Amino acid sequence: MKQFTKHNTRNSLRRIFLYHGLLVRLNSMGVKRVYSYNLAEGARVTPEQVRKDFSEYGIRGNRRGGYMTVLLLNEMETLFRRDRVTNVILVGMGNLGQALSKYSRFGQRGINIVATFDIDPYKQKTRDEMQVYTPGRLQEIIDRFHVTVAIIAVPDISAQEVCNELVGMGIRGIVNFSPVLLRVPEYVIVNNVNLSDEIESVIWSVYRMKEQQSLYL
Length: 217
Known about the structure:
The termini are far apart. The chain is built from ten helices and ten strands. It has helices at residues 11-28, 36-43, 47-56, 69-79, 95-101, 105-108, 121-125, 138-145, 156-168, 195-214; strands spanning 2-3, 33-34, 67-68, 86-91, 111-117, 132-133, 149-152, 173-176, 183-184, 189-192. The radius of gyration is 21 Å and the shape is globular. It has two domains: 11-79, Winged helix-like DNA-binding domain superfamily/Winged helix DNA-binding domain (Arc Repressor Mutant, subunit A, Orthogonal Bundle); 84-197, NAD(P)-binding Rossmann-like Domain (Rossmann fold, 3-Layer(aba) Sandwich), CATH 3.40.50.720. The chain is α/β, with parallel strands linked by helices.
């Protein structure tokens, strides 16, 4: 079993997502051709880093001629496999789980939450846009929709148990919103998303910056 201490998504892939967002905006503005320095400025990296990231993921371009915006976007769409829909399940329908289940941009990016699960009988009976199933039907849904990726948004006390069950049922990728680090086999990918940590880190940085500025006043 392996414990992931942080998001294990490579930094280069995170930058690719950032470049993609920049390209979408540039394309909407009518920009036909972009250069590595354009993306570097928006991503706050060097042009060399942009080219290195593109090379790592097989994205082609002309160093001097730049990149055709539409073609570059198409290459990224292929890289992200946006040409197909990926079925995902969501376990835990508290406030966060409900918000995630209604997030419209998932569908725009080929992420299809086919089912949600919760142990609360009231949530299972409540009529909403998406049916909430009992955990007893996890294997059935995973098999029916060929699901290999799951989102966990359950309380920390039950997160590891839920994780173990999902892995045993064939799940190979987990986005974990529970505030615990999950232990999984080497062949399972886990991204830990702790919203409280993210917000608190920004708060700490703001106060830290204020303290440093006050030293020079």
